[in-house]
Amino acid sequence: MLILEESLLNIKNLKVKFESKNEIIKAVDGVSLTVNKGETVGLVGESGSGKSITSLTAMGLNKDGITEGEIEYKNIDLLKLAPNKMREFRGKELAMIFQEPMTALNPVFTIGNQLFEAIKAHNNLSKKEVKKLAVELLSKVGIPRPEEVIKDYPHKLSGGMRQRVLIAIAISCNPNLLIADEPTTALDVTIQAEILDLITDLKDTQNMSMLLITHDLGVVANTCTRVYIMYSGIIVETGTVYEIFNTPKHPYTHGLIKSVPTTEEKETNRLFSIKGKVPSTGEIVQGCPFAPRCDYVMDICRRKMPLLEEISPGHSTRCWLHQEDKNNRGEKNYETTTSQDK
Question: Which strand (E) or helix (H) includes residue 136?
Answer without folding.
Answer: helix 127-140
